[in-house]
Design brief:
The structure holds two protein chains of two kinds.
Chain A: H1 47-52, H2 70-87, H3 90-93, H4 97-106, H5 118-122, H6 131-146, H7 151-154, H8 161-171, H9 179-183, H10 190-204, H11 213-223, H12 231-249, E1 264-267, H13 270-275, H14 278-289, E2 294-295, H15 314-331, E3 335-338, H16 342-350, E4 364-366, H17 367-377, E5 391-393, H18 407-416, E6 422-423, H19 449-455, H20 459-468, E7 480-483, H21 487-500, H22 502-506, E8 508-511, H23 514-519
Parallel strand pairs in A: 1-2, 1-3, 3-4, 5-6, 5-7, 7-8
Helix pairs in contact in A: 2-8, 2-10, 4-10, 6-10, 8-10, 11-15, 12-14, 17-18
Chain B: H1 2-29, H2 71-84, H3 86-91, H4 93-125, H5 128-165, H6 167-170, H7 175-198, H8 203-213, H9 223-242, H10 250-262, H11 274-282, H12 301-305
The chains are: A mainly alpha, B mainly alpha.
């Protein structure tokens, strides 16, 4: 395993990767994937990519081209320093000024957070991925080059274009799950500092992974969804989903669109409509059966709850959040209910809370809470025996650690799954591990980045999934259900199950929470969950 | 001469400490509202939710219901955290075995000093019938707790110093970090030598503090004893003044890290008191330079947020 010897290496060893992982030295997974030599081969970064872009480690997320002139080098350094100064300004960074300064000033560099980081742990404790490694570089740059303080006080670091470019790359080796912050004895948040580095890159330097910006928030603001779906396409797709769902359930549904004055505006992650149509189909079935007054919106952005700005850019974040609220205001709904998407939950409910005011301050609620109350009301008859298979639950970080929604999803599972069939992952709830797709990784797959995230960020979650089912037969004919009530988490989990062929080899299937409910509804035909790999 | 200098430095050190702590406190408390960035569990969540990390967001129509906020819940976390560094014990036991004695030693030394100050006021200003028993109690408890505090502080500081010199932390350690720990070791060491060698009943230091609070700058002790007492006081006073100027002021920052960030979950309800502040912040100018921000230094957050949708790609 190659790793940096020092924080100072960030600006040294030009052109060299600072860290490289040997896949045969990683900690083996639980059975039946416990033989390292049987694991898929880790795809290597191409020579052309190493030649063209800044090199940090085994992969590339941001695609920062190597500068060819001194002017280009200076532009990188000066842009970064200028952005760093703005992070300390009330005008430019009131949004995070206090949490940011707190973490810059008070980290004791005690490394308590390291053990909490699944990336650091699964890398074999590679120094490059230690949560403090990247934040320490940021602190040293700030104190030495902005505050002009003596390196004796805060440590030394060389500042050149490579330091800057590598640090930006390194900010995309963190899931922003904030597990590190949870363990900090002082209250410093090194996860936040990754996000603040991303902000400098995006908001000051215009450097950001294409998947998050051009194909993400920009596309969403332009056409309505990062999937590229326009309002017309969404309506067509939902019509098809309604028909298909009704055929499977024998329960006719017609998803309402643009119902003025409805109680609820339901906003899905549009990825569900594209990749997991059974999820919006199940929501429509449940909400109709419960007799709720609800609607979807066909306004631009109103049908896609994602907000990628939450991972890299406060202005892009605010733009999307405000447009979500404007759509709800136009419909005159009583509340917005967020579908199964973790970051959409946190973005619109928690973070946008300090942005939306007046008639845009429309209450927001989690669909998990809404569903829990439907079940509590008794209006839906449940046949638990239809869910008589092993079930485990993945907790999306955004819902648990960052929002405190922990109990409702468990209450739902206990209401629809027979006793003894549900098993918790260890740890779970607010101490959960990220799926590995957090902070945008689930939708990033340039070069060999997908392989890297399976090897590094998703490996701890896959380990947890396998551990949760260790008391069950791993025979593929014995199907096991991994419930992941979040679209991005499902994307990452789908990818990692595919990577290890865990559906074919171990019978591990995944899906959302609402699908489990509808699968157990007495009023629909049995077999809503079809156990077919999609 | 040395004693007079010690009185002067003690006054200056205390005053500087109070001013610097006040300034730190004001700095953190005057920071603008930020977006919510809480981290669960939030200790003041009521209804049994804090125990598993739940929040009021688990309730349907939560904005129509009264929030249950438990001060007792906060105290149940904060008091053990302050006294015993519970989070560190849970997440980093190895460090806790060094950090806990260090911090607890500081608490004891600080507590004993406060006790002697109170004792000084009682003895100096209250009638004999009250002053005598209080003085007796303080004379009995101070040497024991003070001595223990100094020993624990030195052991803890040495442990932390060794750890910072170890392989894992060495690269993350600035010279100032080591200086801070040495400063503690030297200061507490001199105080311990004074205590063990010349002032086992803490009589000299108690007298010094009594004189300090009664503004009686009379010399105390002579020869080596007097010199060591004066040196201890000077070192302690300088240390006390130095702490709030460094990242060791985390005892102030930590309050805000918990109450203003980690546990700051108060919702912005429609028409509520927070909206005015948010409006003010959204009207601040933006100077971020990336093209897609479309800022010119004059446009406000509200302006750039409501920009047309023809967002630029990078």
């Amino acid at each position: 395993m190659k790793q940096p010897d020092s924080v100072k290496d960030m600006g040294r060893r030009p052109g060299e990767p600072l860290a490289q992982i040997n896949q045969f030295e990683q900690i083996p997974l639980p059975p039946p994937f416990d033989k390292l030599e049987d694991e898929p081969e880790f795809a290597q970064l191409s020579d052309a990519a190493r030649e063209k872009y800044v090199v940090l480690d085994d992969t590339i997320a941001v695609n920062i081209e190597k500068p060819t002139t001194k002017e280009e080098e200076d532009k990188l350094v000066n842009g970064f320093l200028s952005g760093l100064e703005k992070l300390f300004s009330v005008e430019d960074n009131w949004t995070f000024l206090q949490p940011f300064e707190m973490s810059m000033e008070h980290c004791a560099k005690c490394h308590t957070c390291s053990d909490a980081c699944p990336i650091y742990e699964e890398s074999g404790r590679n120094e490059l991925y230690r949560p403090v490694y990247r934040s320490e570089i940021l602190r040293r740059i700030y104190f030495k080059y902005v505050k002009k303080a003596s390196p004796s006080l805060h440590g030394d670091i060389d500042l050149n274009w490579e330091t800057v470019a590598r640090l930006i790359e390194l900010s995309y080796r963190c899931n922003l799950c904030r597990r590190c912050a949870q363990t900090c004895p002082i209250g410093a948040d090194n996860g936040l500092l990754s996000r603040e580095i991303r902000k400098i890159a995006s908001m000051e330097m215009g450097i950001v992974p294409k998947e998050l910006h051009d194909d993400g928030s920009v596309l969403q603001l332009k056409v309505g969804s990062s999937t590229g779906m326009t309002p017309m396409i969404v309506k067509d797709n939902i019509e098809f989903i309604d028909e298909d769902t009704a055929e499977r359930t024998g329960y006719p549904i017609e998803t309402p669109f643009d119902v003025q004055g409805a109680d609820i505006l339901l906003i899905h992650n549009a990825g569900e409509i594209m990749a997991w149509p059974e999820n919006p189909g199940a929501f429509a079935t449940l909400f109709e059966a419960a007799g709720l007054s609800w609607t979807l919106s066909s306004d631009v952005i109103g049908y896609d709850g994602i907000n990628y700005g939450v991972w890299y850019d406060d202005v892009q974040f605010a733009r999307v959040a405000v447009r979500h609220a404007q759509v709800a205001k136009k419909l005159g709904v009583k509340k917005i209910v967020l579908g199964e998407c973790g970051h959409a939950h946190k973005a619109l409910t928690v973070i946008a809370d300090k942005i939306l005011t007046g008639d845009l301050n429309i209450p927001r609620e989690s669909a998990i809470v809404t569903m829990r109350d439907i079940l509590r009301s008794g209006v839906i008859k449940i046949d638990k025996s239809r869910n008589d298979f092993p079930v485990t639950l993945h907790d999306p970080c955004n819902m648990v650690r960052l929002m405190g929604i922990v109990s409702p999803q468990r209450e739902i599972i206990h209401a629809v799954v027979p006793e003894g069939r549900f098993r918790e992952m260890v740890p779970h709830g607010v101490e959960n591990y990220c799926c590995g797709g957090g902070s945008g990784f689930a939708i990033m797959s340039g070069h060999n980045f997908q392989d890297w995230r399976h090897r590094m960020t998703g490996r701890r979650k896959f380990r947890q999934i396998l551990d949760a089912f260790q008391d069950e037969s791993m025979d593929p004919s014995h199907m096991k259900y991994l419930c992941a009530p979040c679209s991005n988490c499902k994307g990452q989990i789908r990818d990692i199950i595919t990577y290890y062929d865990a559906f074919e080899k171990a019978g591990i299937y995944y899906g959302g929470l609402v699908e489990l409910i509808v699968n157990a509804m007495e009023d629909v035909q049995p077999g809503f969950i079809d156990w077919e790999w999609h | 001469m040395m004693t007079t200098l010690a009185y002067v430095v003690a006054y200056l050190g205390l005053v500087f400490f109070l001013i610097a702590c006040g300034a730190r406190f004001m700095m953190w408390s005057k920071m603008p509202m930020h977006v919510r960035w809480e981290l669960y569990p939030v200790a003041h969540e009521g209804g049994g939710k804090a125990a598993y990390g739940g929040s009021y967001l688990e309730e349907t129509d939560w904005w129509t219901k009264k929030r249950e906020v438990s001060l007792v819940g906060e105290l149940k976390v904060m008091v053990p955290e302050i006294l015993f560094l519970v989070a560190l014990r849970e997440h980093n036991k190895k460090l806790w075995t060094r950090s806990f004695p260090f911090h607890f030693g500081l608490y004891l030394v600080g507590g004993v000093t406060a006790l002697m100050l109170v004792g000084g006021l009682v003895v100096g200003y209250l009638p004999e019938s009250i002053a005598a028993p209080v003085g007796k109690f303080i004379s009995w408890v101070v040497p024991f707790l003070g001595g223990a505090g100094l020993v624990l502080g030195i052991i803890g500081a040495m442990g932390l110093f060794m750890r910072r010199r170890g392989r894992e932390l060495r690269d993350y350690t600035a010279p100032a970090d080591l200086f801070n720990l040495v400063f503690f070791m030297v200061t507490f060491g001199v105080a311990l030598v004074t205590f063990v060698g010349f002032d086992r009943d803490f009589f000299m230091v108690e007298t010094f503090i009594l004189n300090l609070v009664t503004f009686n700058l009379a010399p105390i002790g002579d020869g080596t004893a007097g010199m060591l007492l004066a040196l201890s006081v000077v070192l302690l006073a300088v240390l006390v003044a130095y702490i709030p100027t460094t990242h060791m002021s985390h005892f102030i920052g930590k309050y805000f890290a918990y109450h203003s960030i980690r546990w700051s979950d108060e919702p912005n309800l429609a028409g509520g008191k927070q909206e005015k502040t948010i409006h003010e912040l959204l009207s601040r100018p933006v100077t971020w330079s990336a093209p897609h921000i479309k800022a010119d230094g004059k446009k406000s957050w509200l302006d750039v947020t409501l920009e047309d949708d023809d967002n630029e790609t990078t």
